[in-house]
Amino acid sequence: MCVAGVLLTAHLLPPRQALGSLCSPWAAPRVGPLPLAPAMVRISKPKTFQAYLDDCHRRYSCAHCRAHLANHDDLISKSFQGSQGRAYLFNSVVNVGCGPAEERVLLTGLHAVADIHCENCKTTLGWKYEQAFESSQKYKEGKYIIELNHMIKDNGWD
User: H/E/C letters for each residue in the chain?
Assistant: First the structure.
């Protein structure tokens, strides 16, 4: 049984000792309700991501847990600098969470940015540009920076 993406397995059989008396052809007929053992429920966290990107496209994934992050088609630029090295600018990403926005002075001026993290392994990947205060930087608003040391090329790269 699957409830909200969580696998539930319930075993409602009576204990082994009770089975012998219930199943034996020589046992006296039982009057009244059958004794029930406490339900044993196993909840396992499935290894699923919020979103899967199409298998036929080149994509980028989290280097730490392999969660899909972005399609190559959403790559805008490879010439960005993250806080820990080179980074790519993407139009859209999946399986990431956003922190609160804060103002930072970056190489290209003052921006309001929110750190982004992988929803699966919680690793900080880069940031999202919420607002650019200089008119020449407005194209970055709503875009995402992912640092190269936190992503890998996945599926369809030659």
Answer: CEECCEEEEEECCCCHHHHHHHHCCCCCCCCCCCCCCCCEEEEECCCCCCCCCCCCCCEEEECCCCCEEEEHHHEEEEEEEECCEEEEEECCCCCEEEEEEEEEEECCEEEEEEEEEECCCCCEEEEEEEEECCHHHHHHCCCEEEEHHHEEEECCCC
